[in-house]
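**User:** Here is a favour to ask of a fellow structure person. Please take any protein you like and set down a full record of it. No explanation is needed for now; the record alone will do.

**Assistant:**
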Amino acid sequence: MTKPITKITIVGGGTAGWLSALYLITFLDYKAGPDKPKCNITLIESSDIPTVGVGEATIQNVRETFKSLDLDETEWMTRCNATFKIAIKFVNWLGKNDVFWHPFNELPEVNGLDLSHYVVDKKLKNPDFDLQSYHKEVPICLAQKSPKLGTEDDYKGKLDYGYHLDAGLLATYLKEKSISRGVNHIVDKVQDVNLTEQGFIKSLKTENHGDIEGELFIDCSGFRGLLINQALGEPFVSYGDSLLCDRAVAIALPTDDEKDGINPYTTATTLNAGWSWHTPLYGRSGNGYVYSSQFLEPEQAETEFRNFLGEKASNVPARHLKMRIGKNRNAWVKNCVSIGLSSGFIEPLESTGIYLIEMGIQTLISCFPDQTFNPVFRNQYNRRITKFYEEIRDFIVLHYCLSQREDTPFWKANKNHSAIPESLQEKLEYFQVMSPSLDGFETHLLFEDYSYFCILSGKEYLPKNSLPILKYLDVKEADKTLENIRTDAQKIQSILPKHYDYLKELHQGKLENFRLLFGQNSRKPSTLVTK
């Protein structure tokens, strides 16, 4: 009879460490039956090593994760100055003061074909056709509306949504929840790692608590990779040949939400050597410039970014970050699993940072070992995590490699010199003939056809001809579907409250006002996450 894992030791706090701790304690103990094995979970973090977290955006998947952890949506949003996110707005990615959108949505089918094929056909026949008109979220975003009425259960809304949040506050909230459910918290510095003769981690030597043992170790130590890279020597695979950005400068700014409202979307605007993010939180905004150190020094990047932000940023401190772009060759080595920045990182253009933490810990649960550490579990885990990283890498490269900009050395390099992964090149050749359909490709884990079409249409990278089968089909049904999208957007927009108004009630604990307004006096606990 094999022995179950009974001691898990996590190194590092932040969002990665505490989300991992909360997930493990919830599913291995908090929600486990009384006759199940007891698993002790310890998290060690140093008080003098800062976390990397800045104002952060998520994708919609995090709702299901937080729901599964029994986190009250109103409670954690209030604690983390959170706002809703319906889409990403891309500005000037063609160098033409252009705008395109990537909402959380999918397109319906018409006559068995994705609506995108009909949209392409319309554009080819009428160059003035607005490719963004099929997004029902766009007018709702521009009207600064909330995706929720206030009458819905937790994690449900009239539209699919993610969040903008303060990552530091989120880590604190997750820490409190983890400790309340039984995670042992040690504030100390790991000085050394003790290995067995077989190369497994036996214990961690700390400054003040002696040797701390474990059976399974989770490395959440950030870019240092204290366990996975430094102690176990696992090599890091850089994506620097495909993704040139490796630095960031971040500036948080106060906002006048009552006067200006709160946008329910993230904004990504191109600059000379990269792009800037704008994430609206409640009471402030997170802003950053992701750039390439091949083309800018930190001082130059900060100067350009301050000029971009304007006078409001003149006396606000900036924070400079170095990013390790790529992934470990293997995320799981021996009895150590790396999660978060210690596992890998891809620039946050599509808000995938927290998602990769979620997938790291959820995949570990599905491949959870016993004390024999059968390599089948480890190999399956590593294959799946590699697929996540490579899929996201390809999707981010897509934003750059189709750029028509050549006005700076950085954009010239992206257009002419950066390496396009073979897996993406195959898709690009396919997309020249057909609207995005990934059915013929290897399983896609995150980005569906709609996401690809949002970026490709925004980049004006469309098939040269309409799909041949459309000549035999009646397009009136597609016209009706497009009109229904517009009508639906108008109806939803007319009933949704302003984003700021909703958040003001939420953060002041007065959401009952909305429930009374819409005739619902209480909120029922949700058991299902829906759009």
About this structure: The longest strand covers residues 247-254. Residues 136 and 489 are 5 Å apart (CA to CA).
